Amino acid sequence: MLTYTMRRLALAVPTLLLISLIVFLLLELAPGDPMAQMPLTIPPEVREQMRIALGLGEPWYVRYVAWLHMVFVVEPSHMLAAATGVDLAAEGSRLLSWQSRAPVAEIIAQRLPQTLWVVGLSYLFGILVAVPLGVASARRPHSWLDTIGTFIAMAGFSVPTFFTGVLLIVIFSVTLGWLPSMYDTTLEVTDWDSLRRQAAQLAMPVTVLALYNAAQISRYVRAATLDNLAQDYVRAVRARGMSERAVLYLHVLRNAMIPVVTVIALGVPNIFAGAIITEQIFRVNGIGELLISAIHANDIPMVQTLTFLFAVLIVLFNLLADILYGMLDPRIRYD
């Protein structure tokens, strides 16, 4: 497994380099001018000097190599220096946002905790709801519990998150006044009252994403559990006198979770992408809102970095899914 992991990590390097090149070229060909937001009273020669200051005076391949150096060398060294307190920062200019003129890595580090709160809790609650619901539906197919679970799954998967979010705001914020409609990013949890307010403002965005996650995962859990319940090894275990609960949770569930692992692992990057819409609805000041504002301002360095970050998540969680395969099923070996 260690050899396979190292081989996959080595393969991930050229994969990410190719993805970074594609992202860079796509944004290079995209219409838009970073000087479009500047006042029209700025003389043309000053505009040209500003373009050169942003690094736009060099050919695209020179700027691409400089961007790689900043992403893989300069910014990680500055983050490591900030974390350890030791001056390990590499020489070279930092990757700056065209919109704020601040380092891109620092801006992302400031926004990331807000997104992790929403995405992490919603995915955790989604899994905690989906797995028992899918197993219960498969244990008694076509029962009233299975019908309710199927209805909830279809509704959660079919209704878009922006509609669910607005509906929750209308019900719980406008009509009932129980929950805040906007996320307060300045809130710091220091006591029980601030913890209660943090839970209140997390309730609706987490519920929106958790419902969508649970709807998708529960269907996979139900299908995989039904498939394993019909296998010969289940009949053999039942013939030895093992209880139905033990058969279900000790044997069937472990085998059923093998294909579900792919859905759970690969769903993490998708949740970050889906959080973009949810963050806009509830005004969560996370990386989703940061990406939208960067696109509107034509902030190419920020858009490139965030898009590349999503690609890194996809590659890493693909590897994580394969590793979990081997842990759940001893028959799987990566020799």
Walk me through the structure.
- The longest helix is centred in the last third of the chain and has 39 residues, at 244-282.
- This protein has a domain at 107-328: MetI-like fold, CATH 1.10.3720.10.
- The chain is built from eleven helices and no strands.
- The chain has helices at residues 2-29, 44-53, 60-84, 104-139, 144-158, 161-175, 192-229, 232-239, 244-282, 287-296, 300-328.
- The radius of gyration is 24 Å and the shape is globular.
Order of helices and strands: HHHHHHHHHHH
What ranges have pLDDT less than 50 throughout 5 or more consecutive residues? none
Task: Give the termini separation.
Answer: 8 Å
Computed Rg: 24 Å
CATH class of the domain at 107-328: Mainly Alpha
**Number of β-strand runs:** 0
Query: What's the helix count?
Result: 11
Classify the beta-strand content into a percent band. Answer: under 5%
Q: Globular, elongated, flat, extended or rod-shaped: what is the shape?
A: globular
What is the H level of CATH, i.e. the homologous superfamily of the domain at 107-328? MetI-like
At CATH level 3, the topology of the domain at 107-328 is MetI-like fold
CATH architecture of the domain at 107-328: Orthogonal Bundle
Mean pLDDT metric = 80
Global structural class: mainly alpha
Tag the structure with descriptive keywords.
single chain; mainly alpha; MetI-like fold; globular
Quick structural overview:
With 335 residues, this protein is mostly helical.
What is the secondary structure topology, with strand pairs?
Elements: H1 2-29, H2 44-53, H3 60-84, H4 104-139, H5 144-158, H6 161-175, H7 192-229, H8 232-239, H9 244-282, H10 287-296, H11 300-328
Helix pairs in contact: 1-11, 4-5, 4-7, 4-9, 5-7, 6-7, 6-9, 7-9, 9-10, 9-11, 10-11
